[in-house]
Amino acid sequence: MSSTSGFNNRVTQMLGVELPIVQAPMGWIARSPLASAVSNAGGMGIIETSSGELDAIREEIAKMADLTDKPFGVNIAQAFVRDPGIVDFVVDQGVKFVTTSAGNPMQYTEQLKAAGLTVFHVVPTLRGALKAVEAGVDGLVVEGGEGGGFKNPRDVALMVLLPLIRSKVDVPIVAAGGMVDGPTMAAALALGAEGIQMGTRMVSAAESPIHTNWKQSIIDAAETDTVMLNRHTSPALRALRTERTNALEFDTETNAMTALVGKTMDLYFGGDMEAAVALSGQVAGRIESIEPVASILETCAADCLALLGKLAADYPS
Ligand SMILES: Cc1cc2nc3c(=O)[nH]c(=O)nc-3n(C[C@H](O)[C@H](O)[C@H](O)COP(=O)(O)O)c2cc1C
Question: How far is the CA of 61 from the centre of ligand 1 (A)?
Answer without folding.
Answer: 19
